[in-house]
From TrEMBL:
Record's keyword terms, sorted: DNA-binding, Transcription, Transcription regulation
Name by which UniProt lists this protein: GntR family transcriptional regulator
Residue ranges of every copy of the HTH gntR-type domain listed in the record: 2-69
Native species: Hydrogenophaga borbori
GO molecular-function terms, A-Z: DNA binding; DNA-binding transcription factor activity
UniProt cross-references to PROSITE patterns, sorted A to Z: HTH_GNTR
Record InterPro entries: GntR_C, TF_FadR/GntR_C, Tscrpt_reg_HTH_GntR, WH-like_DNA-bd_sf, WH_DNA-bd_sf
Pfam family of the protein (one): GntR
Length: 244
């Protein structure tokens, strides 16, 4: 995949997950090429890749259209994410994590601690924690050295509400969200401790349990679709309890 096609694919996937398009909306090559400042060929190839990922689907009138995801599909993706990431953590624990990787994981823990342990978190603190959280999970997946797991995780990341940042609590108040972030951060510490001690089974169990925060978020979002759509536009792609 050349650099222009890769760039277009990343840009288009980002627009979709940010809720730029609604379910059923047709994705035409020419308007998309103009929007992204690219030629039609990389757009066409990017659309084919996104269909392969399951993010879009063929349109009855030709080309592609946005698809709608069911809450069960997202819940399944979250559960699979826990299995994959838990196994990645187990591999690191059993095979031994390199010192550089452990240093980087501890740096993520320190950044996370600095944000969630403040008396009161502000919006900028939430943003900082999202970045540290994404980095932490990326290090686990990249560090395990299993390219097949990495490819599977990339596909899961393309599902709305199933990425690492979706594990961050989406509550009606920052105070409540901060409490759940502290819980997630404690789990991060426990995972790194298990990896350092070579406790494979414990590392795997913690990775699988960690995604329960994302499942909680999904249930919360389905009960409050207006709030969910405002905080995470990609939720527009997920059928709520009031939609078919």
């Amino acid at each position: 995949m050349d650099s222009q096609q890769s760039r277009v694919l990343v840009q288009l996937r980002d627009l979709i997950l940010k809720g730029e398009f609604v379910p059923g909306e047709r994705l035409a090559e020419i308007p998309l090429a103009e929007k992204l400042g690219a030629s039609r060929t990389p757009v066409r190839l990017a659309l084919a890749s996104l269909e392969h990922e399951g993010l879009i689907e063929p349109s009855p009138t030709g080309g592609y259209q946005m698809r709608r995801f069911t809450s069960q599909q997202i819940a399944d993706a979250i559960r699979v994410r826990g299995l994959i990431e838990g196994f990645a953590a187990r591999l690191l624990a059993e095979e031994g994590a390199p010192r550089q990787l452990l240093r980087e994981l501890h740096e993520c823990l320190e950044r996370g601690d600095q944000t969630v342990n403040k008396p009161t978190m502000e919006l900028d603190d939430y943003t900082a924690y999202v970045e540290a959280n994404d980095r932490f999970h990326q290090l686990i997946m990249d560090g395990c050295g299993n390219s097949v797991l990495r490819r599977i995780m990339d596909m899961l990341d393309a599902m709305p509400f199933a990425s690492p940042s979706s594990m961050l609590p989406m509550q009606s108040s920052m105070e409540e969200g901060q409490q759940w972030m502290r819980l997630a951060q404690r789990t991060h510490h426990a995972m790194v401790q298990a990896i350092e001690r070579g406790q494979g089974s414990r590392a795997q169990a913690l990775g699988e349990e960690h995604v329960e925060i994302a499942r909680m978020n999904l249930d919360y979002a389905l009960e409050r679709p207006e709030l969910a759509t405002r905080l995470m536009p990609g939720m527009r792609l997920v059928a709520t309890k009031n939609k078919a």
